[in-house]
Amino acid sequence: MIGYVTLGTNDLERAARFYDAIAARMGTRRMMEWPGAIAWGEPGGGAGIGLTAPFDGKPASVGNGVMVALGARDPAHVDEIYACAIENGATCEGKPGPRGTGFYAAYFRDPDGNKLNAFCMGAAAEAASAAK
Questions:
Q1: Exposure winner among 40, 56, 83, 128, fewest CB in 10 A?
Q2: Domain count of the fold of the chain
Q3: Cα(127)–Cα(101) distance, integer angstroms
Q4: Position 1 pLDDT exceeds 90
């Protein structure tokens, strides 16, 4: 249902380093670039993420209650994405772990303060929940 998500940034170069690292962990890359904006994903693939300075010229700000969820393969992949995010300037909003039956997630904010999570659902997440 989601085609793509665009987040605002006040420092595209810094944000690009962060999202390049996350995208690589997720097996994807930059798919589009134009002055002032970059998008990551795969043409014809699932939803991607774009970054840009706000069109109105005002500073980018965090949407209160807004979060982008990144689908991971399994709990180990969630852990890997989270570690990569923290290593590349993210702040922790919730360490990796089970969040109820069949849902495993980690929460973090990118260098601009946008909230993201990495998650997986299903049998692997249930096994991780049972083990904790």
A1: 56
A2: 1
A3: 9
A4: no
